[in-house]
């Protein structure tokens, strides 16, 4: 293993993208996929580390029901950007199939594929039942399924009766995704990097990070804790324009809270009349870790967030209706993050063999 350094580079905070593949009002999934590819190509030029796609089902507002297919599509249209899942909802799938799928991707695009794993259904319970069938209790099997995946990827599995080909012997980084403290204990016990969904579950972020760091066990995969925090970002030239653009995100989350998710709506001048005070409060709570404004505003607020959380990497999700405004938001964010250092507690993880997401 590489040694762990205690130095901190002012440009060592990694920054990445989470794409929910939102479907805009008046658009089609084909439009979404075209925009995702264009965004991936743009953020690759901007220096982003990775681009992850989520898994959601039975949602008229989201087109990422088959992230493994989209990962291949985007990896084929880029050259250096890491592409991965944020994540594959493992209880929805047999570990062998996931190992074969990601083994195929990693064989086609070596050193560029990430496998983020979550335990949530990514859908409502009826849809989860339709997907999982007899494996509906698969959530309880999540830790065992991760270890089964690791076995399929290992070289020692070559003598077993069931093998993942391609997949066996490949270096495919695994990440544990979570929105609660349960996932923090699991990521720590397995010695794997931890990505937290603070873009919609902010309340558990700080206790989850504390648990992960306190209980982390070094592994052959990782020598020290590595944290990715996913946050909402809407950047524009002015605070007022960013606030206006963010009303699309607010409408999106309002639909989720009301149980009626709808395609991403155009921004409005005011949310007044679109939500009741209780809904406004609920949306505000879910979007607590949202960074909305000009570069100056976002830099100040993100610096406070990084100082507080000591994260290694920021992953931004930007549900902005205009594709051009969305690309521009990621450009403004990249310019801010290039000069934003991580907190000193986590900055020592510099070994290429230990740092998740570094192409080999």
Automatic annotation (TrEMBL):
Domain Luciferase-like: start-end pairs: 15-257
Transmembrane segments: none
Family as reported in the entry's similarity comment: To bacterial alkanal monooxygenase alpha and beta chains.
GO MF annotations, alphabetized: oxidoreductase activity, acting on paired donors, with incorporation or reduction of molecular oxygen
Pfam families: Bac_luciferase
Species annotation: Hymenobacter rubripertinctus
Protein name from the UniProt record: Luciferase-like monooxygenase
Cellular component terms (Gene Ontology): cytosol
């Amino acid at each position: 293993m590489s040694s762990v350094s205690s130095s901190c580079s002012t440009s060592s905070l990694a920054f990445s993208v989470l794409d929910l593949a939102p479907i805009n009002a008046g658009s089609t999934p084909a439009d979404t996929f075209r925009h995702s590819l264009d965004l991936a190509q743009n953020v690759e030029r901007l220096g982003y580390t990775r681009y992850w796609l989520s898994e959601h089902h039975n949602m008229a507002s989201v087109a990422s029901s088959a992230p493994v297919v989209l990962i291949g599509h985007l990896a084929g249209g880029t050259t250096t950007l890491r592409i991965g899942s944020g994540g594959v909802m493992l209880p929805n799938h047999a570990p062998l199939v996931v190992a074969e799928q990601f083994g195929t991707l990693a064989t086609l695009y070596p050193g560029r594929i990430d496998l983020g794993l979550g335990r949530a259904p990514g859908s409502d319970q009826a849809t989860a039942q339709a997907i999982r069938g007899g494996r509906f209790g698969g959530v309880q099997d999540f830790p065992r399924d991760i270890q089964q995946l690791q076995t399929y990827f290992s070289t020692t599995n070559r003598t077993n009766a069931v093998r993942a080909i391609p997949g066996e012997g490949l270096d495919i980084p695994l990440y544990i995704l979570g929105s609660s403290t349960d996932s923090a204990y699991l990521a720590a016990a397995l010695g794997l990097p931890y990505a937290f969904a603070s873009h919609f579950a902010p309340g558990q972020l700080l206790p989850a990070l504390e648990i992960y760091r306190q209980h982390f066990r070094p592994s052959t995969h990782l020598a020290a804790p590595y944290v990715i925090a996913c946050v909402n970002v809407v950047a524009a030239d002015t605070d007022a324009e960013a606030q206006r653009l963010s009303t699309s995100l607010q409408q999106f989350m309002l639909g989720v809270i009301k149980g009626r998710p709808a395609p991403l709506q155009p921004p409005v001048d005011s949310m007044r009349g679109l939500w009741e005070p209780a809904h406004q409060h609920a949306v505000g709570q879910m979007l607590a870790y949202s960074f909305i404004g000009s570069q100056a505003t976002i830099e100040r607020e993100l610096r406070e967030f990084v100082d507080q959380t000591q994260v290694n990497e920021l992953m931004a999700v930007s549900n902005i209706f205009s594709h051009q405004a969305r690309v521009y938001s990621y450009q403004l964010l990249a310019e801010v993050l290039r000069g934003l250092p991580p907190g000193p507690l986590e900055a020592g993880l510099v070994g290429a063999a230990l740092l998740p997401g570094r192409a080999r």
